[in-house]
C-alpha cells in the first residue's frame, strides 16, 4: 500500500471523525478505526492516530461523549436482552410437571422464543432506563449551566475587587500627598508666621514652587 505524505483535507478529517465515533458507539477500539481509515485513505494507522489525537479529536469532544453514552446504552440493552432470554429459557424448560429437572437443565436444549408479554416488559424496562439516563443528563446540563453562571459571577466580583483595590490605592496616594502638604504647611507657618496662608501653599504646590512663598 502506498503511504501518503500530503496534508489532510477537510473531507478526510470528517471521514476519520465519523469512523472513530462509529467505532466508539459500537464498543470497538479506536486503533481498529485508524486501520480502517488508513486503508481507505492509503495512509498508515499511526498517521491516522496522530491526526486524530493532534487535530481532529478536540473538534468532536461533545460528539465523543455522546458516542460513549450511546455505547453504554447499547451495552446495557444487550445485557438486558441476554438476561431476558436466559430467564425465559429457564422458565420455559424448568420442571413444571411436563418436563423433569434433568431435561430442563440440559445445555443442549433450544432457546425458547420470547413471548409478546416478555418483549413488552423488556421494552418498558429499557424505556425506564433510558428515561433515567435522560434525567441524569438533564441534571448534568443544569449543573454545568449553574457552574458557568457561578464562574461568570466570580469573574465579575474579581473585576469589582480589582477596581476597588485600584480606587483604594488612589485614595491612599491622595491621603499621603495631603499629609505631606499639611506637614509643609506647618513648616512654612512656623517660618513665615501670619504672612503665610494655606491657599498660598496649595498654589505653590500646584506650581511646584515652594521657594517663592518663602520670599513673598
List the SSEs and their pairings.
Blueprint lengths: L9 H16 L4 H12 L3 H12 L4 H33 L7 H4 L11 H77 L5 H10 L3 H4 L2
Helix pairs in contact: 1-2, 1-3, 1-4, 2-3, 4-6, 6-7
Helix content: over 70%
Give the rounded overall mean pLDDT: 78
Beta-strand content bin: under 5%
Please state the overall shape, judged from the principal axes of the Cα atoms.
elongated
Distance between the termini: 100 Å
Protein name: Transcriptional activator
InterPro entries: RsfA-like
Pfam family, one: Myb_DNA-bind_6
Keywords: Coiled coil
Explain what the structure shows.
- The protein is mainly alpha-helical and 216 residues long.
- Among the domains are: 10-64; 167-207.
- It is 78% helix and 0% strand.
- The protein contains 8 helices and no strands.
- The chain has helices at residues 10-25, 30-41, 45-56, 61-93, 101-104, 116-192, 198-207, 211-214.
- The relative contact order is 0.05.
Question: Main traits of this protein?
Answer:
single chain; 8 helices; mainly alpha
Brief synopsis:
The chain is mostly helical and 216 residues long. Among the domains are: 10-64; 167-207.
